Amino acid sequence: MFEPPFTRDRAANERLAAQACEACGWVSFPEAREVCKRCGERGEWRDTRLEQQGTVQSYVVQQRLPEGFETPLPLAIMDVPQISGGEPARVYGLFTETDPADIEVGTEAEAVFRRIFDVEGLPVHSFKFRLPRGETE
Ligand SMILES: [Zn+2]
Fold first, then answer.
1. Cα 59 to middle of ligand 1, angstroms
2. How far is the CA of 32 from the centre of ligand 1 (A)?
3. Ligand 1 centre from 62 Cα, in Å?
4. Does residue 8 register a pLDDT over 80?
């Protein structure tokens, strides 16, 4: 039976709960890891929380996607600061409710919790990014 990866702990996802490697400070989000992707340590992880807002480092605007996705659909690499400080998490995220023409490297965007797609009739939720309300109006 399919187990949606992001609905098991919806509250934690809404808070942008992440883990930071104690050895090198690299931040893993959204998935928890046993081995650090950067330093390779199988060490200690510290729970951390991310700010709701981050900065676009790079992005693409997807034009061709499987049925069920609306296009054009921007996909960005975001730097999202930890609330506690330290290095930001580098996060892949889809945009929503945003005109792709309004996105540039350096654009500030906020994380919101949205339905991503359905699997076996069940909605799978995760975070997406959008321009902060007020700047687009
Ligand atoms: Zn590490």
1. 25
2. 13
3. 31
4. no
